[in-house]
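Renewal narrative, Specific Aim 1. Our central claim is that a sequence can be written position by position from structural information alone. The example that follows is taken directly from our test logs and has not been curated for this report. It begins with the structure tokens describing the chain, in the order in which they were read.
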């Protein structure tokens, strides 16, 4: 009996040793570069380096959704030129429509002309007048555009689509799906702060992702963190960190334009981080929350258990505060 127990313990020890060795021998690749006007970082457990294919996929997303790419699908659409809509464009357009409806128009990929008009005004101190806003509003509104018979149909040819508030997240999803298709279970994909994590990091622990503190450092050079989230098998996106802020009566506000009326919204929400199953969805809802504000965002979260959020806002005394979904409590490390 002793010999049998000894053999069992030895076998168990060998199995544990093998598991430890395999963990120690795990090979993680790290690829980085630039896409969509920002940086990307991909870390994944694999004996083969996949950077060439990752960059090919990202180039495909850029060729579909980048308004700065002169030959992209979205550029042809904005010019009212005939173009075949690819899978990337249709999937993003469809998701954008869903989030537009779910947020009562707070997320709208036709809003760029308004953002540009007010953005220049904030910088120069000369805001657009009501006539200018009314003129732009004639060709703003996602309800004025749709897809039929494989092409985009617009109620006004001046309508311009800008997917910058969802394309980075979608690019993250495309890379994440590719890694999964290769049987890779441990990875982190990040593009410009939008992230998808799966499995464990190289230390065998959940991935730790920082949430930047909203400040006047528009380029995020200081990289000061408000908090850290410990995540696995989640997508995360943040809106608000890289926007300009202004002060009124000692309080800080973000420059956020309401797509429904064309004017800036004054509320206390400074940064919205959303976590869910897809990064494109997280990206879109984070942008919507910046339009909706703290209380409306919390109300939406109550009816959407598939979404979690980490929201940074300014309280009545101008102090920066944090609210996050109760289901995130175990994942949050406050700074």
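The sequence written for that structure reads:
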């Amino acid at each position: 009996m002793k010999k049998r127990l000894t053999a069992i313990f030895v076998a168990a020890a060998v199995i544990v040793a093998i598991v430890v060795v395999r963990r120690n021998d795990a090979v993680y690749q790290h690829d980085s570069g630039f896409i969509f006007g920002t940086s990307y970082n991909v870390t994944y457990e694999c004996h083969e380096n996949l950077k060439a294919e990752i960059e090919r996929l990202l180039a495909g997303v850029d060729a579909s959704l980048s308004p700065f790419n002169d030959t992209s699908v979205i550029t042809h659409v904005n010019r009212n030129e005939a173009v075949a809509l690819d899978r990337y464009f249709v999937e993003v357009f469809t998701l954008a429509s869903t989030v537009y409806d779910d947020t009562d128009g707070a997320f709208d990929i036709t809003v760029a002309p308004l953002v540009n008009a007010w953005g220049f005004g904030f910088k120069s101190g000369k805001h657009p007048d009501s006539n200018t806003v009314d003129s732009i509003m004639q060709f703003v509104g996602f309800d004025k555009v749709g897809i039929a018979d494989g092409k985009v149909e617009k109620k006004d040819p001046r309508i311009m689509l800008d997917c910058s508030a969802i394309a980075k997240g979608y690019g993250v999803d495309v890379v994440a799906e590719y890694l999964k298709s290769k049987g890779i279970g441990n990875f982190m994909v990040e593009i410009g702060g939008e992230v998808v994590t799966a499995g464990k990091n190289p230390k065998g622990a959940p991935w730790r992702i920082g949430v930047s503190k909203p400040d006047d450092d528009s380029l995020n050079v200081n990289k000061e963190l408000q908090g850290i989230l410990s995540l696995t098998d989640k997508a995360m996106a943040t809106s608000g960190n890289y926007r300009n802020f202004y002060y009124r009566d000692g309080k800080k506000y973000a420059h956020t334009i309401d797509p429904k009326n064309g004017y800036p919204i004054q509320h206390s929400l400074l940064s919205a981080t959303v976590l869910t199953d897809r990064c494109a969805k997280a990206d879109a809802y984070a942008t919507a929350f910046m339009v909706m504000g703290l209380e409306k965002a919390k109300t939406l979260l109550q009816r959407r258990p598939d979404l979690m959020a980490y929201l940074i806002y300014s309280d009545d005394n101008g102090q920066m505060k944090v609210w996050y979904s109760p289901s995130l409590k175990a994942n949050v490390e406050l700074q």
